[in-house]
Write a structure and sequence with these properties.
mainly alpha; MetI-like fold; 73% helix; membrane; transmembrane; MetI-like_sf; cell inner membrane; ABC transporter, permease component
């Protein structure tokens, strides 16, 4: 038996009892929880019901199961499904390894430039994937990429060293975009782990690696698994990067095949039928997660927290720093630098020199006659509203799941996560079918879609943090006479502020660059920046699209810095 295993020790201790709900005595709690469940049913269950209906409907409108057979016999469907599974396996593996390792270095060691790693992880996450593709094609296309041409000249080689237009290139783009989901989730979990467990192991003779593997890793296992599932579902439902790379490299994935079915004339029943197996896959992932972590108690955060003492890496400090810089350079500096250069180029294909660089694209972008101000205003309003709504819903829903004995509370988790597993295009169809009559041509339609898809990101972070907070703290507050709302506001929320803040940032970033559902739901008066960027790319104005993308990234970074400070940046970096 491992002397330093906290899981085995915690299993022996009785788990804190769940909070008993006295509905009649707590009308405020009843109203808030009821409103959260009603909102969840409205933004997730209702659209999904429409999609399920269409998956079981034939061309004549009658009930049938033939749609699933038709989908299976669609040319190229099995190859697309195989490509999707291979893509998921590679991206989840690489994102989990990179994100977990970086989170441990930032939260637990004396590696330099922690703030740089955190900032660059945020940058790599906020750059839209369809714009990341443009930047990487500009840099690493096999024949025309500027980076390839530069290295070929410098090294005197005849063939380009990189080929981003390949399946491996798609794996790279998806990985550098999604590893921050694991990084931020594990970072938040590590900051909620009482480091006295690790210090005790070190005092008793455990080395750095052993204490990390037997103490830190088991205690943040829920965060690792939950974020890995998010990466898995996000990769499975990704459309922008697979569409661009797959078209150029001549391969398909499930989402691109689904998009083909929505082209004119749209075959909504077949598109919905493709999405149903993804729902089943999502349920299986949630079942595996519950099986692996549901039997153990991971609560380690009580009323007294020991200040983190960074682990001295010794001779490994600078190699770890070099590895962190490599990830930072590959995931943020290089693509963002490519975007910046692309946004300044006057004539694409000509040498990059002072005569070919100017700010004319930005001047045109900020010209009121260009028409981007309305899209900018819509994007900001939607991102702020979505992030705030998801943060509030995540706190209430996580509390329901982790602190109550409410019958069917497990369905809350299932309902939240299913929406994330749905391909955005298919889910957008469900939103359109369910709410087009009530909210056609309004931002509310987009808000419903954004909130339903992005809620799992904040929910996973908040629920993971809540798992680590002892219920004894809330019970002590209630014994002292505090009501439920006062207890949550004064006790629970302060302990969750880092997780809620990170979730708010991630959802804001996801919302401001959301594309797949926006293409379907946005109308003339509700255009957002992502749809404008896509239109610029379609019109061949790549440099203008890059300039607007730089503006999107700058906005996200500004908001990220502000909220990070409010949420407690020092606490997230040093424990």
């Amino acid at each position: 038996m491992n002397d330093f295993s906290p899981v085995s020790a915690l299993r022996m201790a009785p788990a804190p009892s769940r909070v008993r709900l006295d509905w009649l005595a707590q009308p405020v709690r009843l109203a808030i929880i009821g409103a959260a469940i009603a909102a969840l049913l409205g933004i997730v269950a209702y659209p999904l019901a429409y999609l399920l209906k269409f998956s079981l409907t034939g061309a004549d409108g009658a009930f049938t199961l033939d749609t699933f057979g038709t989908v299976l016999h669609t040319p190229g469907m099995f190859a697309a499904a195989g490509n999707s599974l291979i893509l998921v396996a590679w991206v989840v593996t690489l994102s989990t390894l990179v994100g977990t390792a970086l989170a441990w270095l930032v939260a637990r060691t004396d590696v330099p430039a922690k703030g740089l790693v955190v900032a660059c992880a945020g940058i790599s996450f906020v750059i839209p994937t369809f714009i990341t593709v443009v930047a990487w094609i500009f840099l690493a296309a096999p024949n025309s990429g500027y980076l390839n041409r530069l290295l070929m000249d410098w090294l005197g080689i005849a063939s380009p060293p990189f080929d981003i237009i390949s399946f491996g290139g798609l794996v790279l783009i998806e990985t550098i975009h999604l590893y921050p989901l694991v990084f931020f989730s594990v970072l938040s979990a590590l900051n909620n782990v009482d480091v006295s467990h690790e210090q005790a192991a070190r005092i008793l003779g455990a080395g750095r690696l052993r204490s990390a593997l037997t103490i830190s890793l088991p205690l943040v296992l829920p965060a690792i698994l939950a974020s890995a599932i998010l990466v898995m579902l996000d990769t499975l439902s990704s459309f922008g990067a697979p569409s661009v790379i797959g078209t150029m490299a001549n391969f398909s994935v499930l989402t691109t095949k689904l998009y083909d079915l929505l082209a004119f004339p749209p075959q909504l029943n077949l598109a919905a039928a493709i999405a149903v197996p993804i729902v089943v896959y999502t349920l299986l992932c949630l079942g595996v997660q519950r099986l692996l972590v549901g039997r153990d108690d991971y609560r380690t955060l009580g009323g007294k927290v020991t200040r983190t003492q960074p682990v001295a890496l010794g001779r490994w400090r600078w190699p770890a720093f070099a590895a962190s810089l490599a990830v930072v350079f590959l995931s943020a500096v290089l693509p963002l630098g490519g975007l910046l250069v692309l946004s300044l180029i006057q004539v694409l294909g000509m040498p990059i020199d002072a005569g070919n660089l100017a700010l004319s694209h930005y001047r045109q972008l900020f010209d009121e006659s260009f028409g981007t101000f309305a899209a900018f205003e819509n994007s900001m309003l939607l991102a702020l509203a979505t992030a705030t709504l998801c943060a509030g819903l995540a706190v209430v829903c996580a509390w329901i799941v982790e602190r109550t004995r409410l019958p069917g509370r497990g369905l809350v988790t299932v309902l939240i996560m299913i929406a994330y597993g749905f391909p955005s295009i298919a889910f957008g169809v469900g939103i359109m079918l369910g709410y087009i009559d009530a909210f056609h041509g309004t931002l509310t339609l987009l808000l419903i879609a954004y909130a339903a898809k992005q809620l799992p990101v904040t929910f996973v972070l908040v629920r993971t943090a809540l798992k680590q907070i002892s219920a004894d703290l809330e019970e002590a507050a209630r014994i002292a006479g505090a009501g439920w709302l006062r207890t949550v506001w004064d006790i629970t929320l302060p302990l969750l502020r880092v997780s809620v803040g990170i979730g708010w940032i991630l959802v804001f970033s996801l919302s401001i660059r959301e594309l797949s559902m926006s293409v379907l739901l946005a109308q003339t008066d509700t255009q957002v920046m992502s749809t404008v960027i896509l239109q610029l790319i379609a019109d061949g104005s790549i440099e203008m699209a890059a300039a607007l993308s730089v503006v999107v990234v700058a906005i996200c970074l500004g908001v990220m810095g502000l909220v990070w400070k409010i949420a407690g940046r020092a606490a997230s970096l040093h424990g």
